[in-house]
Amino acid sequence: MEDICVRWVCKNILFITEKVTCSEPKRRWRIKDFWISARPAQKILLQLCKRNILDDEMLHLFTPEYVDLISPSIKEANIGHYALRILRDFRLLNLSATNLERVNLNTIIGCLGEWTVRNLKSLNISGTSVLCETNLPIVVPLGRFKSLHILNVSRTEFTTQCLQIVVNDLPNLRHLNVSRTRVVDISALVLIADRLTGLIMHRLDLSEPQHVDNLLSNIIKLHELRHLDASDKPRGLYNRQPAVDRLCSGICLPYLTHIDLSGNQFGLRLEDVMSLMYAGFASWNQNQERVLNGIYQLSLQHPDITMLGDRGDALLLATLTRNKDRAVYLQNAFHSIFEATNTVGSVKSDLLAAVIRVMRLHLRRAEMILAGTAVIYNLTRGEQSNHLAPNLLNRAVRITLAAMEKFPSHRQLQKNCFLTLCNDIVLHRAVGIFIPAFLRNCLKSFLKIFPSTSIGNCYSYNIHHILASYVFS
């Protein structure tokens, strides 16, 4: 019920609020004498971000007079310093301010109240700049968060020098994410080895062999680690570093429960890490069939361990659901699913649902959507569509239409989409689908692309059926 109410509020936000004319434009609620508790208020805030609605005006709806906030999440929103000052009146324990272009770390900290600064437990500024006006990274203000346990500075200008400052100034830091930053040396973390339990460093730019060796040598000194992510983009074969053998022995990291080595050609004996609950092996070298099959067999031998990989439905499903923001792994997973479903086989509803979710998250990436439309075609073609739940089939059609609308001039992508839509079973079972009017022209133009080919003749009837069956808005 709470989620239904949240969706209704976000859908009707322009009708239940009104614009106030003053020196700084803002909106206020039309409804009087009400107050929203923290959890639904934070859901509304996040949904407004996802719908690209949140801006300076909208953020003024979230004042203590109307809502409570404890762990707000603001992402990819067009908001500035003035509007963010509403956070000053709340007592926050966790804050996520990600991918904000108009503010930086310094301005965010300046918008927080003293109670929040003293008591904040978790801070996520992934994708938000840590540069000051002189284009130099400035993280000294982070030292004010003496109670901070979890810090995420991934995809920022965070450097090795910044890491040293953070280690010195944050006495309670236990979990750190420096993925895709400018950090090349983690030696400073050895100073907090007795309390650091989580380290995520996905795709660090370690181009020099000595950087890799230094990294491995320091990881094995972090003996309290429970969660380690040393994943990378897929690379070719390279010389094995001696420290890898110690890392994979299980002796140095006895408490490890989560490890992600996706993209890295490391060896690992799971028997040596008895407490392991999660292991990521996605995007290993696709040419090493023996290794990929070995990972799949390993997952069968250890069903109690959640594994990521590029072979087997369970491993692929885990890769799609656990790596939603790592496009390179998702695209490799799409490729593996496509290859595995080239011949008509059993219905894979879970995989189809996961593929649709990933496509919705990455609708702006042409290469991702191209791969996704090919996978959807494979998973819905022929008699397989008869065994899919109507709701899932409708979602597949909707994301296919969204892909067509997003990339109208991408010929191969359009072809993939038409092949899916021209399935007789999809035509008859997908109901209540509204198609933007301009797609009518796309459907008609497909016939012009292949006017006298076998493809054009084969699908001419079904395209006319689409034009007659679906509802155009």
TrEMBL record:
UniProt keyword terms in alphabetical order: Ubl conjugation pathway
Domain of life: Eukaryota
Domain Zer-1-like leucine-rich repeats region: 166-265
Coiled coil: none
Cellular component GO terms, alphabetical: Cul2-RING ubiquitin ligase complex
Record InterPro entries: LRR_dom_sf (IPR032675), LRR_Zer-1 (IPR056845), ZER1-like_C (IPR055142), Zyg-11_UBL_adapter (IPR051341)
SUPFAM superfamilies named among the record's database cross-references: RNI-like (SSF52047)
Pfam families for the chain: LRR_Zer-1, ZER1-like_2nd
Residue ranges of domain Protein zer-1 homolog-like C-terminal in the record: 359-429
The keyword Cell cycle is assigned to this record: no
Gene3D superfamilies, A to Z: Ribonuclease Inhibitor
Identification of the protein by name: Uncharacterized protein
Upper lineage: Eukaryota, Metazoa, Spiralia, Lophotrochozoa, Platyhelminthes
